[in-house]
Amino acid sequence: MRWRWVAVAGAVALLLLAAAARPAGAAWCIARSGAAEKTVQAALDYACGPAGGADCAPIQASGLCYLPNTLAAHASYAFNSVFQRARAAPGACDFAGTATITLTDPSYGSCTYPASPSTAGQSGSTGGIPSPPSADAGGLSPPDLGSGDDSAAAQSRLAAAPFLPLALSCLLVYLLHTQRRW
């Protein structure tokens, strides 16, 4: 009987660890490395425009995410703003093939990338669309901006993430209700 409670306590601990490991829906949309600059610029223009509705204030010259002043960094922030506002819906991170989903937070220094619709900022605050120099202009760069996970694989892991706590909960219920002696 004592071993049963040890197993139950272990299942509860695993359930809590799985739930705390990563918030549900924690995914970001960033610019895909190797995408053509012209296409990325057009996608950035769209994201920061009225149709895209991204909060582009942080990537303006006085914003916390202006540096590094690169196309990839600015596009990543804008793409993620649109993605989060769309509640991370499948297909919301494409931008003509110039974007990808990552499960690694791309935030750096004082630049925090939104991770939910409630933190994605206000639309209509573009204040002009930035046109950063080419991606190889130097400066400080956020970690791994162009090395996001493959979109399909990341979306698959995102969809499966809620099932681990569910599976552990089922195990816990089974252990509590089983009549078998250990």
From TrEMBL:
Domain X8 as annotated: residue spans: 27-113
Membrane topology: Lipid-anchor; GPI-anchor
Region (Disordered): 119-151
Gene3D superfamilies per record: 1.20.58.1040
GO cellular component, one term: plasmodesma
Keyword annotations from UniProtKB, A to Z: Cell membrane, Disulfide bond, Glycoprotein, GPI-anchor, Lipoprotein, Membrane, Signal, Transmembrane, Transmembrane helix
Highest taxon listed in the record's lineage: Eukaryota
Subcellular location: Cell membrane
Membrane-spanning segments: 158-176
Matches recorded under PANTHER family: BETA-1,3 GLUCANASE (PTHR31044), CARBOHYDRATE-BINDING X8 DOMAIN SUPERFAMILY PROTEIN (PTHR31044:SF47)
Protein name: X8 domain-containing protein
